[in-house]
Design a protein that fits this description.
Blueprint: H1 39-48, H2 51-68, H3 71-81, E1 85-89, E2 95-100, H4 103-115, H5 136-146, H6 154-170, H7 173-183, E3 194-197, E4 213-216, E5 223-234, E6 240-248, E7 261-267, E8 278-283, E9 294-307, H8 313-349, E10 351-352, E11 355-356, H9 361-392, H10 398-428, H11 439-446, H12 456-470, H13 472-485, H14 491-513, H15 522-545, H16 548-561
Parallel strand pairs: 3-6, 4-6
Antiparallel strand pairs: 1-2, 4-5, 5-9, 6-7, 7-9, 8-9, 10-11
């Protein structure tokens, strides 16, 4: 029986692939699978998923890749150009706020929430026929493909998933029992989507400046009323939202500072079916994520439920933020992969001056410069997802590892995505600047990652905070040394990798130990740790799957993103990059592609 994803939105023409003659000068890969275009993803997933789960998911990954390369991409383009609108009253004059979403966006919601259960997969069994909750890597592998078509919806997906996690972890059991079934259902009409209402005009990253008040009221559903304005609320008509507010004492005073901030669950609709007491003032006109509504909220005595302990709202919200930051990394990785896939296709198919673009040295070099950050981000996604799985299982040292990997990927991958998507647009040339193609959407959406869930400065400082408070740096270093020990590699290259680990750790330790004076090094230290971590992990992956090509990429991450270079040296590679790849333990080299110095894309 066909699912909703095989049909276009009601008011749209059927998506179709435009057949072109082989010699057409403007190549268009629309309609081909994004999973099939990315053989490295299939090769890497068995390293991070149990064999039985990987085999079970494979047809679903293939289906998601096919949809993302065709139907979903076309729906996403329509939704991007037909953003949601807000109405405040019915035609008869009744107050009844509604956000009107284009049918193309609703169809995308059905695929993500209902058909694939991306927000539910980590919380219950039964999603995609798997009898237990899936590990994070499984959910993120599917999301990695979905986001290559549609970015905006991945924000509500992430918030619903993260809200559910936080509610289960800190919420009163009765509250969990009441709301969990609707948060994790795949029956679309019964679904409760989630949101986070944190940002205020005077309290963005500085949560301690939160001014919204929480007033105890035993007559109110949930026992609390919220009063105040929230300035940037994505998915503002979500059924449930997590909200930070400052508790007001009986005498009207409020506890100041971060200790006065508590976490509350805000329902859109009360138990009697009436609307809760808050309003959407307006929707934002945004640079990117235009398919998804973001708005301003005024809380007018809204009924709310306390989540967890009073005064520990930021600590509890931080768990939700960490999950969202990893999701940000997944989205950045997916955007880069889509941009790279488009660039590779154009380079192979377009001809100029009597040659394929892919045969021109400068184009090969440009694609290589797009490939390195793209592959780094994907590896960091799965390394962080595995650390999250282990932390949730209570394994020793897994939490401090996850705690530092999360801000690392949020900091660097989101910044890299802006450049990769922009440079990939250039490969398509003039067509890449035209809104009929995916390139402008990728570029606009890529700029969100460095802002949402903490700007680059805030997240880099959070890396140092993880080192100072969680003892994360020694745990990360042990993890990297172990990966390196498990990787077959020639002695000279091994020495370079080991030295890079030591030097990056030393820089981060110096920044963390210097207190406020070391904060100026936060971005430099975060970049160093990210590049070295991704290079070591990519080398480990290369050894496991027997890919000479991937080992080469891992080495080039160090050579081009970490180690000193002479800008006037003419691009000569260091001696240790030559003939440094050792075969895996079984002696079988399974190269995933050409191995010569340039043709690594």
């Amino acid at each position: 029986m066909p699912t909703s994803a095989t049909r276009p939105a009601a008011s749209q023409p059927a998506p179709h692939i435009h057949a072109q003659p082989d010699a057409h000068p403007v190549p268009d890969r629309h309609g081909s699978s994004l999973f099939a275009a990315d053989p490295d993803l299939r090769a890497l997933l068995p390293l991070y998923l149990p064999a039985d789960l990987f085999n079970h998911l494979l047809p679903h990954l293939e289906r998601m890749g096919a949809l993302a390369g065709g139907v979903l991409d076309e729906l996403a383009n329509v939704a991007d150009h037909e953003p949601p609108t807000l109405s405040h009253r019915t035609r008869t004059g009744l107050d009844d706020q509604r956000i009107h979403k284009h049918p193309a966006y609703v169809e995308l919601e059905r695929v993500a929430f209902s058909e694939f259960g991306l927000a539910a997969a980590s919380h219950r069994g039964g999603v995609l026929g798997w009898d237990k909750p899936m590990p994070p890597a499984a959910k993120y592998a599917l999301t990695y493909l979905f986001v290559q078509a549609e970015f905006g919806l991945c924000c509500p997906l992430s918030m619903t998933d993260s809200l559910t996690r936080t509610l289960r972890k800190f919420g009163d059991p009765a509250l969990v029992e009441r709301f969990l079934p609707n948060l994790t259902t795949q029956v679309f009409d019964d679904l409760y989507q989630g949101a986070m209402f944190m940002t205020e005009q005077g309290a963005g990253s500085d949560v301690a400046a939160t001014a919204t008040r929480a007033i105890r009221d035993d007559s109110a559903e949930g026992g609390w009323r919220l009063v105040g304005d929230k300035w940037f609320c994505s998915n503002p008509d979500a059924a449930l939202a997590m909200v930070l507010a400052r508790v007001e004492e009986a005498d009207g005073t409020a506890v100041e500072g971060i200790k006065g901030v508590s976490l509350f669950l805000l329902p859109r609709t009360l138990a009697d079916g009436s609307a809760n007491h808050y309003r959407i003032i307006r929707l934002k006109d945004k640079l990117g994520t235009r398919s998804m509504a973001s708005g301003e909220i005024r809380l007018e005595g809204a009924h709310a439920h306390l989540v967890g302990e009073l005064g520990r709202g930021f600590v509890q919200m931080a768990d939700m933020i960490n999950n969202s930051r990893l999701s940000n990394g997944v989205r950045a990785a997916g955007l880069m992969r889509r941009a790279l896939t488009e660039g590779q296709f154009i380079a192979r198919e377009r001809r100029a001056f009597g040659k394929r673009l892919a045969d021109m040295p400068l184009m090969r070099r440009q694609l290589l410069k797009l490939t390195l950050p793209t592959e780094q981000a994907r590896t960091m996604v799965f390394q962080t997802a595995e650390a999250l799985r282990r932390a949730d299982a209570g394994e020793a040292d897994a939490y401090p590892l996850m705690r530092i990997l999360t801000p690392l990927i949020k900091f660097r991958a989101c910044r890299d995505a802006r450049k990769v998507t922009g440079d990939a647009m250039e490969i398509r040339g003039g067509c890449g600047y035209i809104e009929e193609w995916s390139d402008p959407r990728l570029v606009r959406d890529a700029h969100l990652g460095s802002i949402w869930e903490g700007t680059s400065n805030i997240v880099a400082l959070d890396v140092l905070r993880a080192i100072r408070r969680e003892g994360s740096l020694p745990v990360l270093r042990v993890h990297l040394v172990q990966l390196l020990q498990d990787t077959p590699m020639q002695a000279q290259a091994r020495e370079v990798f080991a030295s890079a680990i030591a030097n990056a750790a030393a820089l981060a330790a110096r920044a963390a130990d210097a207190g406020a004076d070391g904060d100026v090094l936060a971005r430099q230290a975060a970049s160093a740790l990210y590049h070295v971590t991704s290079a070591v992990a990519m080398a480990w992956e290369a050894g496991r799957i027997g890919s000479v090509r991937r080992m080469r990429l891992a080495q080039m991450v160090l050579a081009h993103r970490v180690l000193p270079q002479d800008p006037l040296g003419g691009g000569a590679e260091p001696d240790w990059l030559a003939d440094t790849v050792a075969p895996p333990a079984d002696g079988v080299v399974r190269a995933a592609g050409p191995v010569d110095q340039v043709n690594v894309f």
